[in-house]
């Protein structure tokens, strides 16, 4: 296919995606765990309450020639990938939101509306320009460690494809357990060591960490120091009093607090596979049903849930897992089974059949 045709189609898809971005209906929640066997797992949800993302997985071979888009409709940075990777893309094959490369480096895009500011597009720097929706692909194709990403990030200029689009920030993790958050504010890239391991959306990452101080009363299991313990009539209704005060709404600050609490109270599992399953169970708590993000009567009817997909990556075992709001069955791609020097560039829908699996039980 002619490169100009690809660019036109990608631009059209980006325009549609931008409309959803600008409507501020996106949300993401990320968590991470280290298993006892040393497996480091990063998991996340991807919410989009405005329309069907037509999400697909992409398998990108080592040496693949990547072409970045620009706001003018031309080409930006063009480079050959050093590493192969698997990712989940939205709206367009190039727009990878989450992925894992053959070296175990994980990268994901989380929306960051209202707080990021990218550099202005500069036509004289077009050969360094990468739109935010293609930064994950650039990271996964180019680097094997978090430090390499930090050391080379100033080699690109991150821009918007459309002026009205909102901004993003990124989570990058490696098998050692090191994880960073990248946020571009006032045109400058900031790198934050994410020792908490949680990420949502706006405001900025340091604000979310500081906001945890408002919830130091949260406890494992049951709350201690009941001020009403002198009165026998006052007693707990059931288990879980240690989490009273945990915010239940779907705003990014509240989701950050809930994710941090669930992550802090979860047990450490022996293996990466068990940790992955735990992540999916925890992230069930962050599924956003259609309707809660919109005004009455404005909810779309073409998607069953705003949480369109949930992923988990085992950076040590080199496995990428996902499920969707159309099919809750967990699926997996084992990167160790792929020869990235020979595999062809592959794109496939996350759901070949959009239908929940129901097991019928026969009783006689």
Would you write up a description of this structure?
Helix content is 19%, strand content 27%. The longest helix is centred in the first third of the chain and has 20 residues, at 3-22. A hairpin with a 5-residue loop joins strand 4 and strand 5 (75-80). Residues 1-7 and 18-24 have low confidence and may be disordered. It is an alpha+beta fold. Strands 13-12-11-8-7-6-3-17 form an 8-stranded antiparallel sheet, with helices on one face. Strands 1-2-14-15-16 form a 5-stranded antiparallel sheet. The chain has one domain (3-349): 4-Layer Sandwich (Penicillin V Acylase, Chain A), CATH 3.60.60.10. The chain contains 6 helices and 17 strands.
Question: TL;DR of this structure?
Answer:
The chain has 364 residues and is α+β, with helices and mostly antiparallel strands. It has six helices and 17 strands.
């Amino acid at each position: 296919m002619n490169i100009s045709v690809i660019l036109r189609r990608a631009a059209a898809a980006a325009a549609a995606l931008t409309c959803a971005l600008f409507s501020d209906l996106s949300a993401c929640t990320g968590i991470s765990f280290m298993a006892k066997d040393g497996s480091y797992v990063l998991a996340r949800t991807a919410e989009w309450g405005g329309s069907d993302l037509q999400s697909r997985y992409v398998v990108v071979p080592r040496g693949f020639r990547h072409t970045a888009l620009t706001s003018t409709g031309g080409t930006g940075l063009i480079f050959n990938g050093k590493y192969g990777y698997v990712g989940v893309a939205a709206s367009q094959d190039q727009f990878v939101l989450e992925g894992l490369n053959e070296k175990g480096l994980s990268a994901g895009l989380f929306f960051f509306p209202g707080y990021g500011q990218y550099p202005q597009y500069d036509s004289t720097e077009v050969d360094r320009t990468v739109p935010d929706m293609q930064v994950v692909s650039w990271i996964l194709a180019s680097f094997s460690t978090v430090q390499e990403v930090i050391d080379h990030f100033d080699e690109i200029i991150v821009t918007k494809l459309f002026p009205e689009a909102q901004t993003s920030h990124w989570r990058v993790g490696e098998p050692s357990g090191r994880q960073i958050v990248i946020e571009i504010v006032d045109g400058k890239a900031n790198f934050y060591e994410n020792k908490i391991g949680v990420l949502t959306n706006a405001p900025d990452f340091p604000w979310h960490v500081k906001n945890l101080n408002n919830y130091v009363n949260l406890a494992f299991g049951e709350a201690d120091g009941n001020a009403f313990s002198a009165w026998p009539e006052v007693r707990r209704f059931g288990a879980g009093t240690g989490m009273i005060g945990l915010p239940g709404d779907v705003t990014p600050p509240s989701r950050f607090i809930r994710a941090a609490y669930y992550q802090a109270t979860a047990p450490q599992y022996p293996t990466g596979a068990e940790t992955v399953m735990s992540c999916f169970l925890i992230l069930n708590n962050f599924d956003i049903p259609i309707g809660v993000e919109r005004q009455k009567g404005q909810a779309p009817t073409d998607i069953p849930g705003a949480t369109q997909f949930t992923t988990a990556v085992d950076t040590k075992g080199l496995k990428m897992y996902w499920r969707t709001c159309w099919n809750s069955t967990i699926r997996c791609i084992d990167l160790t089974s792929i020869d990235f020097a020979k595999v062809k560039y592959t794109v496939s829908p996350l759901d070949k059949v959009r239908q929940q699996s129901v097991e019928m039980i026969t009783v006689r």
